Amino acid sequence: MAKKLFIKSYGCQMNVYDAARMADVLAPMGYENVDAPDDADLVILNTCHIREKAAEKIYSELGRLRGLRAERMMAGGRAVTIAVGGCVAQAEGDEIIRRAPQVDLVFGPQTYHRLPDMLRGLGAGGARVETDFPVEAKFDHLPPAAAQGPSAFLTVQEGCDKFCAFCVVPYTRGAEFSRPLVAVTAEARLLVEGGAREITLLGQNVNAWHGAEGGLAALLDALAGIDGLERLRYTTSHPRDMDDALIRAHGENPKLMPCLHLPVQSGSDEILARMNRGHTADDYRRIVDRLRRVRPDIALSSDFIVGHPGETEADFEATLALVAETGFAQAYSFKYSPRPGTPAAEMDAQLPEAVKAERLARLQAALGASQLAFNRAFVGRDVKVLLDRRARHPAQLGGRSPHMQAVHVSCGGAERAASLFGRVATVHIAAAHGNSLAGRIAAAAEATGPLRQASA
Ligand code: SAH
Ligand code: SF4
Ligand code: F3S
Fold first, then answer.
1. Following DSSP, what letter does each residue of 338-390 receive, concatenated?
2. Which comes out higher in pLDDT, residue 293 or 123?
3. Is the pLDDT of residue 453 over 50?
4. Which segments of the chain belong to CATH 3.80.30.20?
């Protein structure tokens, strides 16, 4: 009988990719994904350590799981194995079992290829914590990737050597590592055979990829040659690794979508230096100018931290000025959260919560206005949308524009919607909101990209 696997992922897109790969690793043991923990045999929390709130969430979830296990025992139901993976697991290790003894297994982001052995070992008194960075590379031990649907993630680079003062990622994911070009193209082909029209290359510093001569631009070129693949994206980039070839690729690679997530964190050079970012606000402006020269319609997105130790009102205003000047299509912004073991947590001039909250509200108002202005410019236009999401209403689908906007699409009937799912269609935009667009399939539009049979 099939065993049921429930994985809950927190944090970044790499965790979403890792969850898919964990399922690939566990499939030969008879595990099948389910979308609720209730009758699962194995529950994995795939955790994020980036901010305190994200990390603390795990313990309330573990509390609920303890309740679930107790209920099942009372009812004479099946046992459930509880595992914690991801970045909290890497950072806290056996501390997790001390705080939450109901946890059976703790494993890090670089050890999940060993899950079958770890699970088999549990009954035999094997280790309950596996967070050492193994000498063998995880990617060499993973089975071929299963289909992910029309829009797929593919990790090409992992880890970080940049050590921004505020950030835990270099400690939780380890040193920078690039997968070789042949491994990436092989996985991309599998995803496309499984129905992917769009692939987003993932890495903590994806543009530091050095798996072949020519860097990420060369990899994007190689992937653009895959028939049936229509769209390429990559995330997350670091300003320091935006090389000339990659900037040029935005003007030359026909499948590379016109958007870029390029975190800046702050508009103040003093704060950028304290953050150990290795770039100034003007370095960032220059990159944006050059990108817009080769691709005038490029949509820029970014990450910001407010209230980093030492941030003055003038520093914060420099961030607001950069936002006003650049015009972001989309952005994430966070209150600085001190993380154990990072240099910024030890700095003086930590700011009070109220100052952080007030600055975050002002920044988000500015970013929200910038985003709405960007979206409004699309009303009345026809845009190509990859229809990769089913909606509650059977005559509607959800998808993404080339600029990464979420688009709600009326397809003019449930049958039409079913036949359009997984394709790129032309959509006439009728309305714009802060976080999405809405429209209908353009009258004369033909969907492109024949659907292929998913490979077994
Ligand atoms: N590798 C990417 C993103 C890493 S984490 C990069 O270099 O930008 C995603 C975002 O979380 C970061 O860009 C940053 O804005 C935010 N972040 C990281 N550590 C944080 C902290 N201690 N407090 C608040 N936000 C943080
Ligand atoms: Fe964290 Fe900086 Fe590395 Fe991004 S570049 S993962 S923010 S240390
Ligand atoms: Fe979080 Fe780890 Fe990603 S800390 S943001 S899950 S790399």
1. --TT-HHHH-S-PPPHHHHHHHHHHHHHHHHHHHHHHHHTTTT-EEEEEEEEE
2. 293
3. no
4. 138-374
Q: Judge if the beta carbon of residue 360 lies within 6 A of ligand 1.
A: no
What CATH class is the domain 382-455? mainly beta
Q: Which two tokens stand for residue 332?
A: 């994430």
Atom of ligand 2 lying closest to residue 277 CA: 2
Which superfamily, per CATH, for 138-374?
Answer: tm_1862 like domain (3.80.30.20)
pLDDT at 223 over 70: yes
Question: Would the CB of 170 count as within 6 Å of ligand 2?
Answer: yes
Pocket mutation for ligand 2, best pick of 238, 240, 264 (most atoms within 8 Å of C-beta): 238
Interacting residues of 436 by C-beta distance below 8 A, sequence separation 6+ = 375, 405, 406, 407, 408
- CA 14–ligand 3 middle distance (angstroms): 7
Q: Report pLDDT for 447.
A: 61
Query: Looking at the CA of 164, which ligand is closest?
Result: 2
Residues of the chain within CATH 2.40.50 domain(s) are 382-455
- Quote the pTM value: 0.95
| Residue ranges, CATH 3.40.50.12160, the chain | 3-130
**Tens-digit pLDDT profile for residues 334-387:** 999 999 999 999 999 999 999 999 999 999 999 999 999 999 999 999 999 999
Distance in Å, CA 373 to ligand 2 centroid: 29
Q: Where are the beta strands (DSSP E) in 247-354?
A: 259-261, 299-306, 330-335
Look at domain 3-130 and name its CATH class.
alpha beta
